[in-house]
Specification:
6 helices
Length: about 120
């Protein structure tokens, strides 16, 4: 067995506490620090975590369920999206489906109210 293989085998047998102590002894002996690369790598992560959370400005309106009054819901979907009768019917019957994406908060609330008044279940994300 080579000298290096024997050293690796002996190091593998160390407990966590013994390995930490060995690290401290090597740092003192050679004047190096094993913690420096970790601190450098942690700095960008800390900066990213400190970034302020931006308020959501674009919303997606999703039809969760067409409800019992599908004809009324289909009419509203057609008015909101400009889809044809068949496409609007397929969207309502295939729920859950996205009705509109990337809309401002007030428009999303308006669309949600229209669809719910027609008898649908709607989610805004």
């Amino acid at each position: 067995m080579s000298k290096l293989e024997k050293l690796v085998e002996e190091l593998s047998a160390l407990t966590v506490i013994e390995a930490a102590e060995l690290s401290k002894l090597l740092e003192e002996k050679w004047g190096v620090s094993a913690a420096a690369p970790v601190a450098v790598a942690a700095a960008p992560a800390a900066a990213a975590a400190a970034a302020p959370v931006e308020e959501q400005t674009e919303f997606t309106v999703e039809l969760v369920d067409g409800g019992d009054k599908k004809i009324n819901v289909i009419k509203e979907v057609r008015a909101i999206t400009g889809l044809g009768l068949k496409e609007a019917k397929d969207l309502v019957e295939g729920a859950p489906k996205v009705v509109k994406e990337g809309v401002p908060k007030d428009e999303a609330a308006k669309i949600k109210k229209l669809l719910e008044d027609a008898g649908a279940k709607v989610a805004v994300k």
